[in-house]
Design a protein that fits this description.
Elements: E1 14-23, H1 29-40, E2 46-52, E3 55-59, E4 65-69, E5 74-80, E6 86-91, E7 94-99, H2 105-121, E8 128-141, E9 168-177, E10 180-190, H3 197-200, E11 217-231, H4 235-256, H5 259-265
Antiparallel strand pairs: 1-7, 1-8, 2-5, 3-4, 5-6, 6-7, 8-11, 9-10, 10-11
InterPro entries: CHP04255 (IPR026349)
Organism: Polynucleobacter victoriensis
Protein name: TIGR04255 family protein
Length: 272
C-alpha cells in the first residue's frame, strides 16, 4: 500500500487550531494571571512573559512620517506544553488557545480548552465580548489549477484566461448571521504555503510544514468563526457555545470541498 505524505489528500492536516475568548479588561488582571498559571502549569510548564511597545505612524504637514511609541507597553503571558505544540496566551482582554498537533475536536481539544476556561473563570468573573474558533488547514496539489478538484466555487474560481497560467491565488468570503460571523480565506502558491500574516509569527512548533513538497502547489484554507457576546458565562456555558461554533465550522468545511474530495478523504462526515 502506498502511503501518501502529509499535506496531500486524504491526509490533509490542520496546521493549527485556535480558540479565543475576549473579555473586558479589569484592574488586577496580572494577579489573576498568576493564579491561572498555578492551575495549568502541570500541563503547560513553559512560561514566557512578553511586552510589546506599539508605535504610531502619522503623516506630518511636510509630507514626512512621525513615528512615536505608545505611552504604555502591551503585556501578555504565554504558557506552552513541553513539546511546544500547545500554547495559551493571556493578556488583559483575551485568552487564546493554539494547537498544532490535532486529530478530532472531541478527542482532546474540547477537554483541554474547557479546563483552561475553568482555570480562567475560577479566578475572576469575566464580562465576555467575543468568542472565536479558527481552523487553518493545508493540502497540496500537483498544480494550481487542480484546486477545482477539491474546492468548490467561489473560492476555487479563476478568470479562465486562455494561454495564461495562474501562479498564486487569494480568495476571501465573509458571511454573517445575527451576531455571528464566518470568514473563509484561501491562499495558494507553489512551494511553501503562504501562512496568514497574523499567525505566521506565532512561536509554536508547526511540524506539519516540514512535510511540504516544494515542487507541488500548497493551499491554505483558513476558516474563522466568531460571535459577539455580552455578559458573564460559566466555563460550562462556554464549552457548549464552542461546540456549536465547531459544528458551524464542520458544516462550512463540508460545503467548501467537492464530492471528489469527500471520496478521497474517506470520511463522509468529515468531522474535524
Amino acid at each position: 500500500m502506498t502511503v501518501k505524505p502529509m499535506g496531500s489528500w486524504p491526509h490533509s492536516p490542520l496546521i493549527m487550531v485556535l480558540a479565543q475568548v475576549r473579555f473586558e479588561s479589569f484592574i488586577g488582571w496580572e494577579a489573576m494571571a498568576k493564579g491561572f498559571q498555578a492551575l495549568i502549569q502541570q500541563d503547560y510548564p513553559r512560561f514566557n512573559e512578553q511586552q510589546i511597545l506599539p508605535f504610531n505612524v502619522r503623516p506630518t504637514d511636510v509630507g514626512q512620517l512621525d513615528v512615536s511609541p505608545e505611552v504604555q507597553a502591551f503585556k501578555y503571558f504565554e504558557f506552552k506544553n513541553a513539546d511546544e505544540t500547545k500554547c495559551l496566551r493571556l493578556d488583559s482582554g483575551s485568552l487564546t488557545y493554539t494547537v498544532t498537533e490535532y486529530e478530532q475536536y472531541s478527542d482532546f481539544f474540547e477537554a483541554d480548552w474547557f479546563r483552561s476556561l475553568q482555570a480562567l473563570t475560577n479566578q475572576h468573573p469575566l464580562y465576555l465580548k467575543r468568542l472565536g474558533l479558527r481552523y487553518v488547514d493545508l493540502f497540496q496539489t500537483e498544480n494550481i489549477e487542480a484546486i477545482s478538484e477539491y474546492i468548490n466555487p467561489p473560492l476555487a474560481s479563476g478568470l479562465g484566461l486562455d494561454g495564461w497560467t495562474s501562479t498564486n491565488r487569494f480568495a476571501v468570503c465573509d458571511y454573517t448571521r445575527d451576531n455571528q460571523k464566518l470568514r473563509v480565506q484561501l491562499f495558494q502558491q507553489r512551494g511553501a504555503p503562504p501562512l496568514p500574516p497574523d499567525i505566521a509569527s506565532l512561536q509554536i512548533k508547526k511540524s506539519v510544514l516540514q512535510s511540504i513538497n516544494p515542487e507541488k502547489t500548497s493551499v491554505i484554507l483558513d476558516m474563522d468563526r466568531m460571535e459577539d457576546v455580552s455578559g458573564v458565562l460559566s466555563a460550562i456555558d462556554l464549552r457548549d457555545r464552542f461546540i456549536s461554533i465547531h459544528e458551524d465550522l464542520s458544516n462550512a468545511f463540508r460545503a467548501i470541498i467537492t464530492d471528489d474530495a469527500r471520496q478521497k478523504w474517506g470520511d463522509p462526515k468529515l468531522e474535524q
